[in-house]
Design a protein that fits this description.
Elements (H helix, E strand, L loop, with lengths): L11 H40 L8 H14 L7 H4 E6 L2 E15 L2 E14 L2
Helix pairs in contact: 1-2
Length: about 120
């Protein structure tokens, strides 16, 4: 059994390693988090015509205009609606495919990549 003198807890170096690891993880999370918030906003914009029947979106062009306006309101400026959203009409519904990828530099040539790909079925009024 060890004496109480040798059981003092973590050393200063150990604490520096733990704090360095936590700072690295926090840096990675704070670089990726805004992209997830943008994605959640895009989901809400795309599904809005299902919940708000007053929008009365009837054509693909009107749907793109709705998405572009929603992106401006939510300050999503690093995405182009025409590039990340593909819209088709199928069985009297809008078939919307949201697909894009974002990269954030972490350390020199090491990057964090987030990829989003989801398909929505939005009813027409």
């Amino acid at each position: 059994m060890k004496s109480a003198h040798t059981q003092r807890g973590m050393s200063f170096i150990s604490w520096l390693v733990v704090l360095g690891f936590l700072a690295f993880m926090a840096s990675a999370v704070f670089k990726v988090l805004p992209h997830y918030f943008d994605y959640m906003s895009m989901e809400k914009i795309i599904t809005a015509p299902d919940t708000d029947k007053a929008l009365e979106i009837r054509t693909v062009g009107e749907f793109y205009a709705h998405i572009t306006k929603g992106m401006q309101v939510n300050n999503i400026r690093d995405l182009n609606a025409q590039d990340v959203v593909k819209i088709k009409i199928e069985n009297n519904q809008f078939l919307v495919n949201l697909k894009y990828e974002k990269r954030e530099s972490l350390i020199e040539n090491i990057s964090l990549v987030v990829s989003f790909d989801k398909e929505f079925r939005v009813g027409m009024p």
